[in-house]
Design brief:
68% of the residues lie in helices and 4% in strands. By secondary structure, it is mostly helical. Strand 1 and strand 2 form a beta hairpin. The chain is elongated, with a radius of gyration of 43 Å. The two termini are 69 Å apart.
């Protein structure tokens, strides 16, 4: 019993000999009060004054938020578009089949136009042969009308063929661009990060 008391007394003496604990350090900051004077204090000091933002600062902040929202919405739209594209064309074979179908329709239309052009050119040759019977160019009214009509039809058909060839080239270019995009989306290294929502 006596030795236990002696040990407690010894512990108390040792604790008493320890230096007192230092108070927790307060964070000091420099701020301005309402009159613009510099104040050295801790963050809770009521003298520290944060002025309201200027009209220019507000406008810049609103513009930043608007741009961030536009970027986010554009990202979400592209994400939806990419998902839709991947749903339609999960592999190259599906995409090749869609291209072939689109181009086969354009080629069929072009073949019909070219066949019509051959008919018109044959008709023009027939009309020219007939016109040779009138060496001074005094063509009968019907032959003149038929020749003029044939020339107009050939011109229109040539324009149609050019437009159809352009259409086929545009379709090919469209499928080329789509395929380039799909190759990136099909790749295992494709960027799968989501869109970052803007912070208010």
């Amino acid at each position: 019993m006596g030795s236990a008391i002696a040990r407690l007394v010894m512990v108390g003496v040792m604790l008493a000999a320890l230096p007192p604990l230092a108070p927790a350090q307060k964070r000091i900051l420099t701020c301005k009060d309402e009159k613009g004077r510099t104040v050295l204090s801790d963050p809770s000091d009521p003298r520290c004054y944060t002025p309201p933002p200027s009209e220019d600062a507000k406008a810049a902040d609103e513009e930043r938020k608007r741009k961030a929202k536009e970027t986010y919405l554009a990202c979400k739209a592209e994400q939806r578009s990419n998902q839709s594209l991947m749903g339609r064309y999960p592999n190259k074979q599906k995409h090749d089949a869609a291209r072939e179908q689109a181009l086969s329709q354009a080629e069929a239309t072009l073949r019909i136009s070219q066949a019509r052009m051959e008919q018109l050119l044959a008709e023009r040759q027939r009309l020219r042969d007939e016109a040779e019977f009138y060496p001074k160019g005094n063509l009968p009214p019907k032959l003149r009308r038929d020749s003029d009509s044939n020339a107009a039809l050939i011109e229109a058909q040539a324009a149609a063929i050019t437009a159809q060839k352009d259409d086929a080239a545009q379709k090919n270019a469209f499928y080329d661009d789509e395929l380039a995009k799909l190759k990136k989306l099909w790749s295992p290294q494709a960027d799968r990060h989501g869109c970052v929502a803007p912070q208010d």
